[in-house]
Amino acid sequence: MRQFKRxxxxxxxxxxxxxxxxxxxxxLSGNATLTNDYVWRGTTQTQGDFSTQAGVKWAAxxxxxxxxxxxxxxxxxxxxxxxxxxxxVGWSGALSTDWTLDTSxxxxxxxxxxxxxxxxxxxxxxxxxxxxxxxxxxxNDVLATDATGTYAQLGTRVPLGEAWRIEGAVGxxxxxxxxxxxxxHAQLGAVWxxxxxxxxxxxxxxxxxxxxxxxxxxxxxxxxAAVQASF
Length: 231
Known about the structure:
Helix content is 13%, strand content 56%. It is mostly beta strands.
């Protein structure tokens, strides 16, 4: 058994003990998204097809939170993968007036597969003034390969009035231990909050040649358009 999988029951018990005292001071939120393509770290997870997604998040005033998010996926036919479920526990809070930190443990599950694709990642995101961020993720079983991998992303968002903003990010995935190579990607998008609680997002994604070689047909240049509702 992989180390992270052995640790999950203990993590669940620890989370339960932490969540209990804060249950009376907490909030529940959620989101639902319809998108023409599910793009994750520069590569499509649906072979360029449409995706419906939904998530729910519980957060205590102490900063502790737990969330679940799901989407349809389409991998190689032999995996029979058709759905993804991300289970997250973490803590988020202010470090100072300008800086906030979000730390998390994410377990990626693919319930419908005939092979073991589940894996777990430790993550942290440092945000400055709510518009620039550095995200780092690490796993000792990256993409269910039994190998280590590290991901880093640097991004920013620029408000253009009350309803519009531009968002951009660059990322790099160190996958040498798992696949013998690493890759980079970039994204640039516009967001229109046209009517609360709805947003329209249009994002251009591109990857380097290493990603195209590692994930043929899944990486490269593509445009993702999505409508999201938050509640």
